[in-house]
Write a structure and sequence with these properties.
Length: about 350
């Protein structure tokens, strides 16, 4: 059986199969791969795109990840924390635009004040938007008690990328005091508390091999992950990892291709999960997110943060949409989603099917 026959059969893909998928290079093989992934997507989650309005609530971060533009050590960043009213206004806008759900994302802060602030914001959003919005948090590693308080206040999904499933690689991307084990424990905590749990990794990182990427996919499966957010690594000049990728500008096409192959492989391997087509793809090519949808993703997170905040939330260089007002970019986005034969599931939460399957186990 060749790899495409294997993909179409009902046999579970092995490590070697996944590696072969990632090694596909020529255009006709890639087209076959993306088509196969698109078929799996159509069968398991349909051709609807679910939107999550992304609100970047703060770029203050206690972490010092070597790749990230808002790392603690980057003194060039102007730090901000959105006022509660601005976050609520963002949620109301998402409701008005009928996005169905929102993501509150921010740098990692662990303090009683911050826990309380988020708790209050969640309660207010639910009241002030008539409980219509699905609410996802992406606020880093926290204690079980904090996760529980936020869950009880109304959040029901949480994104925490493991960044690299290989501990040794993780160790090369983070300072010594960043613990892979603790991050992993957080994912388990989130599942225990009852969140629909999302994780993900970056692809095309310096020091990363295809074996590492295959391990990422197996990690998602073994840990029963409901939602995947993966994206290609993009260099940020003011970070230590930039020096390990001096020829990044020549490799943008390769980074994009690899990111798309990871989405396709994840869809084929994991089937009923939600997979985001991330902004990092769009940073590499204008229509990168549409390509992600065609390779198997079913979620897009349009950024609805106010421009005055958005410009300071630069995880990497070339972040797209900085000049767009939220309504304007949404109109463009919907048009381009429809132009590839998909439709936007306005007003729906778009819960991952995998979550309910996991609960029934
Ligand atoms: N390139 C791509 N993705 C990045 N992230 C942070 N820095 C970069 C970068 N330079 C991703 C991380 C993080 C998410 C919010 O953004 O995976 O979890």
């Amino acid at each position: 059986m060749n790899i495409f026959e294997k993909i179409n059969s009902s046999t579970e893909l092995t490590r070697d199969d996944l590696k072969e998928i990632l090694s596909l290079e020529n255009d006709s093989d890639l087209e076959r791969l993306f088509n196969a992934a698109y078929e799996v997507k159509t069968k398991y989650v349909g051709r609807k795109v679910y939107l999550r309005g992304l609100i970047e609530i703060s770029n203050i971060c206690s972490k010092d990840c070597y790749y990230c533009g808002i790392r603690r050590g980057n003194t060039k960043v102007h730090r901000y924390m959105m006022a509660d009213d601005d976050v609520i206004a963002g949620a109301k806008l998402a409701d008005k635009l009928n996005l169905g759900s929102i993501v509150l994302q921010g740098g990692e802060i662990s303090s009683d004040d911050f826990t309380l602030k988020i708790e209050n914001i969640l309660k207010r959003i639910r009241i002030e938007t008539g409980d219509r919005l699905g609410i996802t948090l992406s606020l880093g590693e926290q204690s079980e008690a904090t996760y529980r308080r936020w869950f009880e206040a109304g959040a029901h999904r949480y994104l925490l990328r493991i960044e690299a499933s290989n501990k040794e690689l993780y160790g090369r991307l983070h300072p010594q005091d960043h613990s892979w084990d603790e991050r992993y424990a957080c994912l388990k905590r989130l599942q225990k508390v009852g969140y629909q749990t999302g994780t993900g990794t970056m692809s095309g990182l310096p020091h990363q091999t295809d074996d590492d990427l295959v391990s990422d996919l197996i990690f998602f499966k073994e840990n029963d992950i409901d939602m995947i957010g993966m994206g290609p690594y993009l260099v940020h000049e003011d970070t230590p990892l930039a020096k390990d990728f001096p020829d990044f500008e020549d490799k943008r096409e390769i980074q994009l291709k690899r990111g798309l192959k990871m989405i396709a492989a994840a869809r084929i391997f994991l089937k009923d999960v939600n997979i985001a087509s991330t902004t990092a793809l769009q940073a590499l090519r204008n229509d990168g997110r549409e390509l992600g949808l065609l390779a198997g993703a079913n979620i897009i997170m349009p950024n609805i943060s106010l421009a005055k905040y958005k410009v300071n939330y630069n995880l990497y260089e070339g972040k797209p949409g900085l000049d767009d007002g939220p309504g304007e970019s949404l109109e463009k986005l919907v048009g381009s989603i429809e132009s590839i034969g998909e439709s936007v599931a306005f007003g729906q939460w778009g819960d991952p099917r995998h979550f309910f399957a996991r609960k029934e186990k």
